[in-house]
Amino acid sequence: MEIKSRVPGKIVRFEKQVGDSVEVKDVLIVMEAMKMKQLVPSPVAGVVKEYKVQPGDRVSAGQVIAVVE
Fold it and tell me: Residue ranges of the Lipoyl-binding domain (predicted)?
């Protein structure tokens, strides 16, 4: 499943690494948006397959930022 950014912002760090197992609501990415930390949770249980961004990248709303299968 592709995970998209809900808001424009900057990627701060990854909380899970590629290959890690995740459960629903596990935090994948910490973003900064509107000068506040935004947590990006996994909507599904599975394995982190890929990040489409890197820490420091700016993203727009609706941009695919991760893939969990």
Answer: 1-69
Task: Work out the pLDDT band at 4, boundaries 50, 70, 90.
Answer: very high
Q: What domains, with CATH codes, occur in the chain?
A: 2-68 (2.40.50.100)
CB 8 within 8 A of CB 33: yes
Q: Is the pTM of this model over 0.85?
A: yes
Residue 6, phi-psi category: left (phi > 0), alpha (psi -120 to 50), beta (remainder):
alpha
Q: How far apart are CA 7 and CA 43, in angstroms?
A: 16
Per-residue pLDDT averaged across 31-53, rounded? 96
Q: Are 63 and 25 in contact (CB under 8 A)?
A: no
Contact 69, 47 (CB under 8 A): yes
